Amino acid sequence: MKIFHIKTYKLKIVTVAILTIPLIGSLSSCKKDFLVAEPELTLPEGEAFANPTRILAQVNGLYFSIKSGAFLGGRYLIYNDIRAEEFSNRTSNGVTGLTVYQGTNVASDTYIARLWSQGYITINRVNLFLKGMADHPGVVTQAVNDNYVAEAKFLRALSYFSLIQIFAKPYLLDNGASRGMPLRLLPESNLQNNGLKSSSVAAIYAQILKDLNEAETGLPNTQGDALTNTTRAHKNTAIALKTRVYLAMGKYDKVIEEGNKLVTQTAPFITVDAARVGHALQANIVNVFAAPYTTSESILSFPFADTNIPNTQNQLGYYFNVGNGNLEYSLNITGAGIYADPSWTATDARKTGLTATSSFSGRTYTYPTKFKGISPFLDAAPVIRYAEVLLNLAEAEALNPGGNLVRSRALLDAVRKRSDPTYDFGVLATSAELLAAILKERRIEFLTEGMRYNDLARRVAPIPSFGAGSVSIPVTDPRYTFPIPLQETNTNPEVNNM
Amino acid sequence: MKKLVQSLFILLFIATSAIAQERTITGTVTDDSDGRPLPGVTIRLKGAKGGTQSAADGRFTLKVPSGVNALEFSYLGYVSQSKNIGTSNVVNIALESDSKALTEVVVTGYGTTKKKDFTGSAATIKGDDLKDRPVQSFVQGMTGQAAGVSIIQPNGLLNNPPVIRVRGVSSISLSSFPLVIVDGIPFPTTDASANSTTNNPLGDINPNDIESIDILKDAASTALYGSRAAAGVLVITTKKGKKGDARVGYDGWFGVNNAVRLPELLNAQQYMDVKNAALKNAVALNPNVVPASQRDANGNGFLPSYNADGSLVDTKWYDEVYRTAYSQNHSVTVSGGTDKTTYYMSGGLSDQNGFLKKNTFKRYSGRVNLTHQATDWLKLNLNMNYNNSLNESPNSGSAPGAAFNSSGLGRIVVAIAPNVAPRNPDGSYNMTVNSVGNGANLVPSNWAHPTVLIDKDKNSSETNRFLANLGADFKLAEGLNFRTNYSWDRSNVENVRFLNPFQGDGVTPGGRATNQNTRRNNWNWINTLQYNKSFDGVHNLNVTVGSDVQKTRAENWGSTRDKLGDPTFFDQFQGTYVSNIPSGNSIDQVSFEAYLASVSYNYNGKYFISGNFRRDGNSGLAAGRKWGNFGGGSVGWSISQEDFFKNSSLGNTVNNLRLRASFGKVGNGNVGAYNEYTTYSPAIYGATPFAWYYNKAGNKDLTWETSTQTDIGINLGLWNDRLTLEADYFYKNINNLILDVPQAPSKGIPEDLIAGGSILANVGSMYNKGFEFGIGGLPVKTDKFSWKVNLNFTFLKNKVTELDPTVKQLIGTTGGLESASITKVGEPIGSIYAVRTKGVNPENGRRIFINAAGREVQYLHQGGVNAWTYLDGTVAPSVAGDAQVIGGTLPKWYGGFNNTFTYGNFDLNLMFTFSGGNYIYNGSRAGLLDQRFWNNSTEILKAWTTPGQSTNIPRTVYSDNVSNGSSFAISDNVEKGDFLRLQTATLGYKLPKTLVSRAGINSLRLYASVNNAFLITNYSGVDPEISTNGNSTLSSGVERNTIPQGRAFTFGLSIGL
Known about the structure:
The structure holds two protein chains of two kinds.
Chain A: H1 2-30, E1 43-44, H2 52-66, H3 75-82, E2 87-89, H4 98-102, H5 110-135, H6 142-167, H7 171-174, E3 179-182, E4 198-200, H8 201-218, H9 226-231, H10 235-248, H11 252-260, E5 298-302, H12 316-320, E6 329-331, H13 349-352, E7 355-360, E8 363-368, E9 381-385, H14 386-399, H15 405-419, H16 431-445, H17 452-457, H18 486-491
Helix pairs in contact in A: 2-5, 2-6, 5-6, 6-8, 8-10, 10-11, 10-14, 11-14, 14-15, 14-16, 15-16
Chain B: H1 2-17, E1 21-31, E2 42-45, E3 51-53, E4 59-65, E5 70-74, E6 81-84, E7 93-95, H2 99-103, E8 105-108, E9 111-114, E10 122-126, H3 138-141, E11 149-152, E12 163-166, E13 179-182, E14 185-186, E15 210-216, H4 219-222, E16 233-238, E17 244-259, H5 268-285, H6 317-321, E18 325-337, E19 341-353, E20 360-375, E21 378-392, H7 409-415, E22 431-432, E23 435-436, H8 450-456, E24 458-477, E25 480-499, E26 512-535, E27 539-564, E28 577-582, E29 586-603, E30 607-618, E31 627-638, H9 643-647, H10 650-653, E32 654-668, E33 679-684, E34 690-696, E35 705-718, E36 723-735, E37 738-742, E38 758-762, E39 765-781, E40 785-802, E41 809-814, E42 818-824, E43 831-834, E44 837-840, E45 847-850, E46 856-859, E47 868-870, E48 884-887, E49 893-903, E50 906-916, E51 919-922, H11 923-928, E52 974-976, E53 979-990, H12 993-997, E54 1003-1017, E55 1038-1039, E56 1046-1056
Parallel strand pairs in B: 1-7, 13-16, 51-55
Antiparallel strand pairs in B: 1-4, 2-3, 2-5, 5-6, 8-9, 10-15, 11-12, 13-14, 15-16, 17-18, 17-56, 18-19, 19-20, 20-21, 21-24, 22-23, 24-25, 25-26, 26-27, 27-28, 27-29, 29-30, 30-31, 31-32, 32-35, 33-34, 35-36, 36-39, 37-38, 39-40, 40-49, 41-42, 42-43, 43-48, 44-45, 45-46, 46-47, 49-50, 50-53, 51-52, ...
């Protein structure tokens, strides 16, 4: 009986041993790499600069970042337009800019935080890209390398300029002496460096100009085809942005210097350097805002596509259009709104071709149709148009001591008469009269293109806010600029110091 | 042989007592639960020698001498019972299945331990306590049943993942949800839905199949699960067959469900009066507040509409959104077994409807559990479970993150204008471009039409899950066992969403369909070698070594299709659309590998000591830092087993007295995949060029988050366990917290655009400490009447003791918009963060706020530069950024009070739950008092109107979204969360056996139950247990636009054949 038992045990042990072999086999098959799981759909940083294709993809990634609907692809433009007198809020929706409209936005508004973050993410992506290019020499040719680096710097300048305009006091208030924002030039991807004081407004402008000057040098004369010339920066793009920056600094001589690189002395105003991309006003402004959005007037605009949409509640068309748009804001057609201004005639192409009316719920709304595409809202988001360069130059010629008032008037007429050929400004004898006419022209010409607040701020003018009540907001009022978001002060308390 | 000896003894007893016999008693012994006869039950005479055993048909005959008044019945696995025989010669008895026998076993890490040998802290809930309830997941039924375990239903949406906390919040950024093990395999617990419906994977388990749930709480118990046990462990064991003929059971119930505690809203007339008054106040301050075209000659913008019969349109929007809902649940089981093989088979069908229209939950489930003793050294077991769960719901705005959804019904239904009709006279929807029609109102109401959303939108999430578990036990030698157990959990989730092109989020895209599919493969293989031996009868030793490997891979793919070809025809993904965009595509893979060892020893059941160790690897952590060592130990002393105690006078009363203590270290493995990698994401720039963009900052130093836990406990049993007490002190200290450390947005770290990006890192620490008590008793026990009571009570304190030095505080948001929660050092996690208010200025009706400097500031909406002023009228800065910590949202005490009464064939169960010491941010109230075109609660009727008036509601100014808390959180909306709830009340009646046996039925019980019967609380929101942010730890205790809880009446029956 005992022997029998031993036998069974032996049998058992053998059986178990046999069974265990595959078990141990599969256990050891786990081996070392059993615990290694690498992402399969995203690219580890070490491989990002591996070949020219990936580097070019990163350049495209920088544009993809800056044109996010949270930033220059949508919301930035919208906030700049709805702060002043041109629009009337229809929906009272707290997440579609109501507090910006009412002048009641606060540091805890998360959608302002989103704007700030998207700007700075773009800046950091540029910083990382510049470091990566420096660390991986020879993957692309020197010429291509210089082009890409210049494009990155251009986008960094555009991001800083866009942010400094709305989060800090205007340069002209005190020649840039006031608190600006943190000047981030180092690539960030770890836990260090949360704290960084703000630089002065002047210091930010200095960096913007440094980047733009270097960009002008490094950028190619042309990017090739019409689409790429419109959607990626080339030499003229950097120069055009410089006219905007110098205008905000009140450096009219520099505006003229840069503007002359792009504009002939007399009409017809077109670009002067045949080697570069040619720019000119379109005969009909409506075509600038129609597919394929690649006219020679569009110096830079950001494209969208079915697979690359501005995302929910960021789309320009959603805010300003009816149809599939939600008409968050309709034109203020009474009082101070530019729509009611007698100088904007009913026959102006910008009224006949770029505004419309629509009735629903028993009410009629007037709205701009520059972004008339319906969902998924693929209208390109404009950044710089040749018309702006002309008006920037016109303003500089009007204000620069000894400026060419005749050229100023001619530039203004060029923009106006393109859309309203029979209009006559009458006599504009003084620079002040010219300035007033130019500023008003900009309100008509750039409506919904994100210029309105900037045009007030760079003149240190109060904001005649419709949404905040009839009282306008003076430059000293805290409401004049957007508060630095709570998320920043929370993690970087030094941001309010300089 | 044993039986033969037993019978011989019994015969002997009968023989010796034969002389004094006076009468013969006959009767039948049955199983109380299903009425089946019980053979082999030992029946003894009380106070005399003699007895018998019941026969195969449960019948017995016994001669009883005079002087014997009672019989004692005992049977293994059943509660022994004494029965007075009175004068009757027939004694029928139903024995109750011994719940204690079940609770005397604790299912721990990789085996079971007798409760009397267990020195850790665990609670056990029987499956029987869950099955009568109209619940979707078994977790709901656990509410209030276990000390130290807090379970909250976030709202009344069906199959919503509950919020479970075992001894408090266990992590800040990682999940605080306990590890759930179902028959050996870690089970998913996060919402599987990708759209507005909720899909709780735990709802895939048929509650009827559950034998027991063991909740492991202290480190000594959980350390065997080491890496993933920081938040406690729920060990779910499903039912096995019992030896004997096939038993068939049917359980079914029918339920009715309604929404309760809905806020009382303004009717049409009140709405117009309130809004027009506010409009006039606003226009006086700013004529642009609404365009002139939106006011009539009298300055009114809200005007009456009339029905065809001339009556005022006064719409009760609640009726459009909520309903009385009916549900049913059926479950059939067949179980039985032979000496060698047991089987348990079940089929279940649950068809539930929520009080929110179109909210449904359907589950079909089938299970086979088999055990087979193949040889004397090999035992096999196999569990297989297939189920299909279909969840459907319109967008309730109640899923986490959805609080401010513009199509969220919980929000629309209270805010939409009551003076417009849902339908036009011709029966069509009263709607305009993406909103309800205005009726006569000049100021438009911009809320989407809720009826259209309910009728035309579709949201569903359907899971098909196959769960298999195959195990083998090899007996290598006496006391030495090898066990291998392979579990496979394979699930497919199909998420379907259609947004109609007429109202809501589908208008802008012109109709939108999004389908998303998840295929999840999860396997777990455990091998253990156990040595279990008793030496000399006093030295009891148990040694276990083993390995545990798990791998989970989920592949998600999907697409969004926009702009319907024919907007009035298609309402499904397969229709024709203009654009197709990929969406919801991702791949996730995580793996775990662990080696473990544990030793426990006790001397003669008096002195206990145990220790365990586990080494764990997790693929989600950084290279070189993937492995962690965990372990714990415990000691115990059963004083009641000591002779000196047994012999003392106390020993007569106190039958059990045990002291125990444990300490251990465990980890939190819920860290997810790929955290060490800094990566670039793919995109397309415009229509063509491909793009890579930097989109994630990884952390190459990321390692285990660990927690240490100390537990000191006492078990006390009095009068043969008629009264039991279990008390524990615990101190859980979480170190190396893995925190999603927010980075300065200006650094440009990607991912979360609101918070400005974050990086997972091991920083910070936090503790939970407290006491928990469980008292069980049987105050009354007679033949006819018994009262069983169970009270558990937990006191808990949580405090964050350290965060990243550069991070002063973490702000938690609700729905990505409202920042009402804060976590900072020295405060409990997820405290309320709001600007303090101090009532309303009686002179001018303006809300008074307290700024950061402590000064009183009043607010005038539309006041321009004078919007913010000190009380003396001088201009003050805005207080919007002056939020302060108001109070903690975690209950400081909570528990359950469970009473079961039986009287004859009736049984009554009353289960109370209570909780308190916490604050709730009632953000819904901010919406209910918002002065835009939104409807208000009747509380607005108390608004200030005349100088000198003392009230807490400010003067109404149209468009004011600041004074009442819409713009930023204010302390006026903070309320205490104390409550007492009658969670369930169940009345059951077991039909007399004589009646049912004629129909061939062994047992039949009918019951009626009410869930959420009543609630006593001062909280003014819909429910103090609401959790708008679901399982979030950083923003708990917030109610914002969430649908309420329901009250359910259930009628059911259980049949045993």
